Amino acid sequence: MVLADVIPGARVRDALLIIGGAALMALLAQISIPLAGTPVPITGQTLGVVLCGAALGANRGVIAMTLYALAGLVLPVYADGHQGWSVISGASGGYIIGFIVATYVIGRLAELGSDRKVLIAFVSFCAGQLIVFGVGVPWLKVSAGLDWGTAIHGGFTVFIVGGLIKAAVAAIAVPSAWHLVRKVDKKA
C-alpha cells in the first residue's frame, strides 16, 4: 500500500494521480539552475521522482514518468521549457530514462513500507537517485563525448549535495504524510 491507495476510487483516481505525477515532474523541471562545466542543470526533478515513486507506487509511478518523458517529445515540459527528441538523445536523456527506472524501484520499496520511517525513506530515496545517475552519467558521457572523469564530475559529483537535500526533504514529507493518514484513520 502506498499513499495513493488511501484515496478512494480506482481507475479515475489512478488516471488523475498519474497525470498529476507527470505534471509535478514538468513543474519541477522548470526549477532549473545551469551549472558551469556541465550541460545538465540542477532541477527539482529528482525530488519529483522520489515523491512520485513513494506516493504512487511502482506501476503508477512508472506510467507517470513515462507520460512525462513522452509529453516532453511534443510539449515544452523538460528543464528550461525544452522539448523534443534532441533532449532525449542529448546530455539529459539518460536522466529522463533513469527517472522511469528509479521511480519503479522507489515505488516498489514504498509498497514494501520503506517510506514510513524517515531514515529508511532517506536511504531508499538516495538509492533511487543513484539509479538516475547510474543511467544518466554513461548517457552523458556518450552523448557529449566526454571522458569518464568529466562525465562523473559534471553528471554526478556536482549534484550530490542537492540530491541529499532532496532525499531529506522527501524523507521528512512522505513519512509525515503517513503519520497524518494514520491520525485521520484513528479519528474516523
Question: What does this protein look like?
Answer:
With 188 residues, this protein is mostly helical. It has a single domain (3-187), classed as Arp2/3 complex 21 kDa subunit ARPC3, CATH 1.10.1760.20. The chain has helices at residues 11-29, 45-56, 58-74, 85-89, 93-111, 118-144, 148-155, 160-187, and strands at 32-33, 42-43. It has a two-stranded antiparallel ribbon. A hairpin with an 8-residue loop joins strand 1 (32-33) and strand 2 (42-43). The mean pLDDT is 95.
The biggest sheet amounts to: 2 strands, antiparallel
Provide the gyration radius in Å.
16 Å
Inertia-based shape: globular
CATH topology: Arp2/3 complex 21 kDa subunit ARPC3
Average pLDDT reading: 95
Q: What is the CA–CA distance across the termini?
A: 19 Å
Number of spatially distinct domains: 1
- Text of the CATH class: Mainly Alpha
Strand content: under 5%
Helix count equals 8
User: What structural category characterises the helix and strand content?
Assistant: mainly alpha
